[in-house]
Amino acid sequence: MLAVEYLKYERVKDLTAIEKRLLPTLARLCDYDKTIYLTMSQIRDEIKKLKVCTTKLFGNAIDKLIERGYISKNDDGQLVCHFYHPNTGTESSYKYIKHYKFFTEAAFLNLHKRSLELLYYFMTVKLPGKPHLISVEKLYKNKTLNVDSCVGNFASFEEFSTHFLELIETGVISVVLKTKGKGDKILTKDTARFRETFKDFCDKKDGKRKSRMGKSFHVIEVRISESVVKETEDIYDRRSSLRDLESIAIPYGYDLQLIAKEDLVDLHSPKKELIDQFGLFGLKIWRKALEKFFMDGGNLYEQVQDRTFSNYLKNWYIVPEFANEIKTTIKTFADQIEEEFGFTKKMNLDMDAYNSIKLHVSLNPIQLDKNILSYISNKSIVDEMLTMAHDIKAHSRTSEFLFDVLTTNYTELKEINKKCFTYMMSKIKELNITSEEIIKMAYEQRGQRKQNKIMNDSVQSDIEDKIEDQCQQQDNTEFQLPF
Asked: Which has the closest alpha carbon to 423: 401, 390, 396?
């Protein structure tokens, strides 16, 4: 989506026609973090494909947009579009403009500079498709109104009407001429003699002055045409939010262009979920998970075909990345406690040490992301929860004590602990094996991802349902994992 504040008339009037055309074209290439994950050469190819401008003029236009604060370059030399806004479904309709297919069509790309100024004015002053009432005299400099009150920077009616009528001719806008007691008249590109009709309405004749009738105003109702508003591009049309996946996949021999649009939903859903819940941090997790997926030999084509990619990536790559964040945070905090109290990693700690750690946490609260803990609890298979808890406890005696303290402080961590405890007890009873053997099984299950195996969804669902049922039968006592 395009931010309205960057397309206001006062701001775009100083841009060239090419710069005005480039704005929606660059926006459709942006990822959620406003970055275009294409090389400058690839962007030129996209611009050339749409016939926005020649490659010779492209570089200068980009430099000017950087100079005017519309875009910038990050440390990797990639373009960042500040006028772009990702559509997360919660935006105010008056702040952002959708990606209309019209922006990629000749009707838009062939508009003159001043016509583009008028178009952006009508698009930003009111939600596209909604009527905007204004007197014609407000749109050009004239003696009827104070010059400072005029919206457009048009020197005369003739100059204004040339570009205004171009918008009607191309079907971009429709206009209603508001008349007192005579019935309103609608002008569209299909209206016969619409040019003459508009000029007659404004008391203008070609080559003649306006007939003097004192200070009279000619009110019109302008709206962006329905044909423009109804045709929008979604992320699957643009594929802009899958550029990172594409760039990561290509070195491993996978081409996203071979994947049908309807199959992109499964590819994109985990990324959208992460962005919605965690913002740019979720984007970082998504990309790290993708890198590891391909490094481990994941078969993108097969999993897209089987519609297992989304669950597979969540279970074996996204959740572990989040678990690593939690493990790192707790281990780092444990190390700080050891340094402060003089504990060693293998020291046997007594109840006094436990109480000291508990007091330290109360005075220096450790900040764990509750959303991450909830994601781990809701999205991961139990094996991942087990290995996370085990890794934290195995780090040191301090981290083991700290984990127990935090379990009482965080409802989300307590829920994870409860699921792990219930699962462990059921496996000990069912298989008659030790908790150490169950942990070993959990690590082996995690390791299976390198052979591109995944737990059957229905089996996984059955296991989770059983654990949930058993958890509900438990009381509110603390759950101490048996390892």
From this structure: 390
